[in-house]
């Protein structure tokens, strides 16, 4: 009966935490006007549905824009297919997007458009729990889901029609199914992996970073699982790679609305940073630069992540040797996380921590497992026989028991601090900074751009100006 009660309580907590994952960004987003990228993404997606052509915003794959704009098809909206910003010789996705959004009920469009990203955040939360539970334990799954639910940078990116969180969701789920395939050998898991890899590739071009790792993982698996000559092993690798590639390519092909150009994806990939302004000045720690800093994303992560989470991440690394998982599991958690973070640090423009978020779910599940292991190892073992008689004879050593309760008390304190960090900053999750830099009020001294404000706060600015008509806003 106790095991049934534990199972029921676990499911209840999963439901509660998943509700937090969905409703925090849902209610937070109601406060905001369109973020800068949303002005391009949501209207561009609607134009894809209406025209059958992917014209605007080619520097991002179409899937997220199609998903976000799908509910808009059931509304009676003003849309001009002959708009010169859409079909003219000089196309302008920003002018087209502004005109489309503001000529319709913009709050209604944003509400329905943002739901798809919030649901993908919910899906990611579920798979974080699922993978951590299967790799470690259900308690580790809950701890991982708890870390994810109150992570400000994840909440911030779940409330806008942008591509970073969908990429994080689809790529993480893809590697989960690759892990399942390695563990079970069932080819259906490899097909699922290919499906979600295709969804990741169709969400943001940054997903191509994972392709070399994927090829290496499949090659090593094929080599180890096949006994025989080199040609036989290579044939098995090709067969497995094709099994994953077919669903991936199918998703990409249909997300691009079945193009006739065989190089459709490479063409889009070449347009990345098409809107980047030459000579744009990057910013860090009060200093401007055109070249950026190699440590930009590391510093952004350290000052925009709650301190309790940083402590948990650090503890999980320090106790690395005590975490009992097999080599494949370690590789499929650490290598995607580290490789994506490394490539992002040397290639991505230094404008926002959001470019780093596909690495964070991998760190979260490992940390959940590590915390659970640390707690389990500190528990007092059941006593009996001579041990119990020794305790009753007055020779009891209280240190292990005290150590365990101190650990639990510390865990509860840091958990409360972590939750408070997320609740206190509501709804300004984009602008969150931790106490290492004096909190969010000092954030502008260290970072700018979508680390602080993404053009999304015009609604509250308008209300402030209405309430304070004499105030001078610069």
Explain the overall architecture:
There is one protein chain. By secondary structure, the protein is mainly α. The protein has a domain of 282 residues. The protein contains 20 helices and two strands. It has a two-stranded antiparallel ribbon. It is globular, with a radius of gyration of 25 Å. About 3% of the residues have low confidence.
Layout of secondary structure:
Layout: H1 2-29, H2 36-51, H3 63-69, H4 84-87, H5 93-102, H6 106-135, H7 138-149, H8 152-157, H9 164-184, H10 187-201, H11 211-225, H12 230-255, H13 264-270, E1 282-284, E2 287-289, H14 296-304, H15 307-318, H16 327-347, H17 360-378, H18 385-395, H19 399-424, H20 458-467
Antiparallel strand pairs: 1-2
Helix pairs in contact: 1-6, 1-7, 2-3, 2-5, 3-6, 6-7, 6-9, 6-17, 7-17, 9-10, 9-16, 10-12, 11-12, 15-17, 16-17
């Amino acid at each position: 009966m106790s095991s049934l009660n534990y199972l029921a309580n676990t499911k209840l907590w999963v439901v509660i935490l998943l509700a937090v994952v969905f409703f925090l960004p849902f209610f937070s987003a109601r406060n905001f006007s369109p973020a800068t990228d949303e002005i391009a993404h949501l209207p561009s997606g609607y134009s894809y549905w209406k025209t059958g052509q992917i014209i605007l915003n080619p520097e991002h794959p179409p899937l997220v824009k199609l998903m976000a704009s799908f509910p808009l098809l059931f509304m009676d909206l003003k849309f001009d297919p002959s708009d010169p910003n859409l079909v003219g010789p000089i196309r302008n996705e920003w002018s087209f997007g502004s005109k489309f959004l503001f000529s319709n009920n913009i709050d209604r469009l944003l509400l329905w458009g943002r739901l798809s990203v919030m649901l993908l955040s919910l899906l990611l939360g579920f798979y974080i729990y699922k993978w951590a539970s299967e790799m470690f334990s259900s308690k580790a799954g809950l701890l991982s889901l708890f870390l994810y639910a109150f992570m400000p940078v994840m909440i911030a990116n779940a409330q806008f029609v942008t591509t970073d969180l969908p990429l994080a969701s689809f790529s993480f789920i893809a590697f989960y199914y690759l892990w399942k395939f390695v563990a079970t050998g069932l080819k259906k898991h490899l097909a699922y992996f290919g499906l979600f890899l295709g969804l990741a590739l169709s969400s943001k071009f940054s997903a191509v970073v994972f392709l070399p790792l994927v090829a290496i993982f499949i090659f090593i698996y094929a080599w180890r699982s096949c006994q025989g000559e080199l040609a036989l092993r290579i044939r098995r690798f090709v067969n497995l790679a094709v099994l994953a590639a077919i669903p991936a390519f199918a998703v990409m092909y249909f997300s691009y609305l079945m193009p006739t150009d065989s190089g459709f994806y490479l063409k889009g990939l070449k347009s990345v940073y098409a809107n980047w302004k030459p000579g744009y000045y990057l910013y860090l720690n009060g200093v401007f630069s055109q070249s950026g800093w190699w440590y930009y994303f590391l510093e952004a992560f350290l000052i925009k992540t709650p301190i309790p989470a940083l402590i948990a991440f650090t503890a999980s690394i320090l106790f690395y040797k005590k975490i009992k998982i097999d080599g494949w599991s370690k590789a499929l958690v650490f290598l995607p996380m580290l490789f994506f973070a490394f490539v992002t640090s040397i290639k991505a423009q230094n404008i926002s921590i959001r470019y780093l978020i596909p690495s964070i779910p991998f760190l979260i599940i490992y940390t959940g497992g590590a915390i659970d292991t640390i707690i389990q190892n500190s528990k007092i073992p059941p006593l009996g026989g001579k041990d119990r008689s020794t305790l009753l004879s007055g020779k009891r050593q209280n240190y292990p028991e005290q150590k365990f309760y101190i650990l639990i008390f510390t865990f509860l304190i840091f958990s409360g601090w972590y939750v408070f960090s997320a609740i206190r900053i509501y709804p300004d999750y984009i602008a969150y900074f931790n106490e290492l830099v004096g909190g969010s009020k000092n954030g502008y001294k260290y970072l700018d751009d979508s680390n602080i404000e993404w053009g999304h706060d015009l609604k509250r600015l308008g209300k402030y100006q209405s309430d304070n008509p004499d105030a001078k806003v610069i």
